[in-house]
Each structure stands twice: as structure tokens, then as C-alpha cells.
Design a protein that fits this description.
The chain has helices at residues 14-24, 88-108, 117-123, 126-135, 149-157, 190-194, 260-273, 302-306, 312-322, and strands at residues 2-7, 28-33, 42-48, 51-58, 61-64, 68-73, 112-114, 143-146, 163-166, 172-174, 180-182, 186-188, 204-208, 214-221, 224-230, 254-255, 277-284, 290-296, 335-336. By secondary structure, the chain is an alpha+beta fold. A 5-stranded antiparallel sheet has the order 16-15-14-17-18. Strands 2-1-6-7 form a 4-stranded parallel sheet, covered by helices on one side. Strands 3, 4, 5 and 19 form a 4-stranded mixed sheet that branches. Strand 10 and strand 11 form a beta hairpin. Helix 1 (14-24) crosses helix 9. It is globular and about 65 Å long.
């Protein structure tokens, strides 16, 4: 069996962890760094009188994609190494064609995907996440998404514990030195409530501020649930978003005994979206509530392998090697060209 890993060249150690787990099980893994296509990696897709050819070639060697048994979808950055020195319009055309080519390739691999791209894209919708989380019985923060300053001010009056603000999309801002500035969850001050005119340029998400006993990261692989916790409140920097002190907490995560009913509701949430993998953020409040924040269908897990030592990569490898797609075999519409 061969697992195709869809990623990019600067992805983290999660790739090597899963590759090692696959090889420990006597199977093969092929890493496809999408940022290196089309400049460094070659692809051949051929449809010819009922015959099909699908090959991918890099310094790892040549892969016959007809031999792929599963796809692990991690990260994608198609065409980013196309030189910026070429004409801008030509570069844009090359990007669009490269993306269409690889997106089409991924869609045409009729094998098990962890997870299918359309499933991931739908599950990334945080508004839908909150809606379905409520439907399956999870506790969620009171939330307002708006570009209306008056609506924010009225909502703030109903939240005695204050507000935090966040974005629905994941992005970063770069300063004049090229340094990445990630947008974290942040508190809303009384002065902020007086200066909301910029909402006419960009809507924002506002939530009631939830008191935190612990912050939880729950990683679900298939039906396996790995729950870890940190006390983010010991760091002033991380009080509103533990990611602000992510490296400082790298060895602070501890296993957490997630209540059975909460775990079952999270699995129902996963089932609703059709996900086999998800990284879920929750808050444990001082009065014992487990409040759902969001699910990332391709969220990170590698630090949880170090501390508290969860075997997540092994669970991912087992899922990729044991799962099948019913009544949908790879390339059943024509024989492959050798």
C-alpha cells in the first residue's frame, strides 16, 4: 500500500511522524510538496482510448498514482515557487493552471482521503460549526458576527463578562520587515467599543468572554479521541488565546479525562461534517462547563506527540492504511498505462 501525502516543503514534523508510522507498518509513503509544482516536480496525466496514466516524479523517484491506496491531505501551496520575475499576468495564468491541474488530480484519486477537500472546505465554515455544535448539544459562546457598530455596542451591554473579538478566516499580516503578525483572539476594551467605524471595511466576530479554568485541545482520529489540557491563565500573554504563548506551553500539556457525553457530542459533530480527523478547541470553565470554540479539520497535532505523548501519528497511519471507499475502486473506468 502507498499513501500519497499532500503537503508543502516547509510543513512541520507531523509529516515525518506519520511517514515513520506508515513505514513501521511495512507500507510506503510518497510526499508531494505542492509548492514545488510545476517548477521542480513533474506530473503526467494521460487519458488515451480507455487507458490512463498518472505519474508523479520528484527526487524521491517516480510514483505510479494508480498504486496509491490513500491520500492524506495536509497543506497545499501550489505554484508558490513560480518565479516572481516573470510577467505578472503570465505568472497568474501559470498559478491558475497549476492549481486547476493539482486540484483535479486530487479529486480524481478515487481512494480513501483523510479528508476529501470538499468535506474539509465545508467544515472550515465557523458559522456552520457553531450552528451544528449547538444542534448536537455542545455548549457554545454567545456570538455576534457583524459590520454594524450599533449591533456590537448593544451586544456588549448583554455580556457582563466583556467581549473578545476574532476573525472567521485564518490569515496573517506582514510588517515592513516581512515579519508575520498572526491575528489572535483579543479582548474588546471600552475604548474599542467607541471606535468601531472600521467595521464598514471588514466585518468581525465578537463573543462573550468565557472564564477559563483550562483550555482543551481534543484531537479526533476516526473514533479515537485524544484530549489534552493546559492552564493558559498562568500566562498573562496567553489569557485570551493560548497560541500567543504556544512555544512556552509546548511541555505543559497534560492528558485530560473528557466526560463521556462531551466526547460523544464531539464525535456526532465529526460525523455530521463527514470528518475522519479534526482538532477541536474547548474551554473548561470554573463551574465545569465544556464550551466548544471551533474545529480545525486539518489542525496541528505534532506537539501533543511530545507532551503528553499521544500516539496521534500512529492513529492517522492506521486510519490511512485500514480505510476503504465502498464500491469506489481507484481508476475503475480504464486500465492504467504502465
Amino acid at each position: 500500500m502507498t499513501v500519497l501525502i499532500i503537503t508543502k516543503s516547509n510543513d512541520n514534523e507531523s509529516i515525518s511522524l506519520v511517514v515513520d508510522a506508515i513505514r513501521e507498518r511495512g507500507q510506503q509513503a510518497f510526499r508531494f510538496d505542492t509548492d514545488r509544482f510545476p517548477t521542480e516536480i513533474q506530473l503526467v496525466v494521460r487519458y488515451d482510448n480507455g487507458l490512463q496514466q498518472f505519474t508523479l516524479a520528484s527526487e524521491q523517484g517516480k510514483l505510479d498514482l494508480c498504486e496509491v491506496s490513500a491520500v492524506w491531505y495536509r497543506r497545499i501551496d501550489i505554484g508558490s515557487k513560480i518565479p516572481n520575475t516573470i510577467d505578472k499576468q503570465l505568472r497568474q495564468a501559470s498559478l491558475l493552471e497549476s492549481r486547476a491541474t493539482i486540484q483535479g488530480l486530487i479529486a480524481s484519486l478515487q481512494v480513501f482521503h483523510l479528508d476529501p477537500v470538499p468535506v474539509i472546505r465545508r467544515a472550515e465554515n465557523k458559522q456552520l460549526q457553531l450552528q451544528i455544535a449547538q444542534q448536537v448539544g455542545l455548549d457554545t459562546p454567545r456570538t455576534l458576527i457583524t459590520n454594524d457598530p450599533q449591533a456590537v455596542q448593544a451586544f456588549a451591554q448583554t455580556c457582563s463578562g466583556g467581549l473578545v473579538t476574532k476573525m472567521l478566516s485564518s490569515f496573517a499580516i506582514y510588517d515592513e520587515h516581512g515579519q508575520e503578525k498572526v491575528v489572535f483572539t483579543s479582548p474588546v476594551s471600552p475604548q474599542d467599543l467607541k471606535e468601531l467605524n472600521s467595521l464598514c471595511l471588514c466585518p468581525m466576530t465578537f463573543q462573550e468572554q468565557i472564564s477559563k479554568e483550562l483550555e482543551l485541545r481534543v484531537t479526533v482520529v476516526g473514533k479515537q479521541v485524544f484530549a489534552a489540557a493546559i492552564d493558559s491563565q498562568v500566562s498573562e500573554k496567553a489569557r485570551h488565546d493560548w497560541r500567543r504563548n504556544g512555544f512556552g506551553f509546548i511541555d505543559a500539556w497534560k492528558p485530560y479525562d473528557l466526560p463521556h457525553d462531551v466526547g460523544e457530542r464531539l464525535l456526532r459533530l465529526m460525523d455530521w461534517f463527514g470528518l475522519n480527523y479534526g482538532a477541536i478547541d474547548l474551554i473548561l470553565t470554573p463551574d465545569g462547563r465544556h464550551v466548544f470554540l471551533e474545529i480545525n479539520p486539518v489542525g496541528e497535532f505534532f506537539w501533543l506527540e511530545r507532551c503528553p505523548g499521544f500516539p496521534i501519528s500512529k492513529a492517522i497511519a492506521d486510519t490511512l492504511l485500514s480505510s476503504t471507499v465502498e464500491a469506489l475502486l481507484p481508476f475503475t473506468y480504464g486500465a492504467c498505462i504502465n
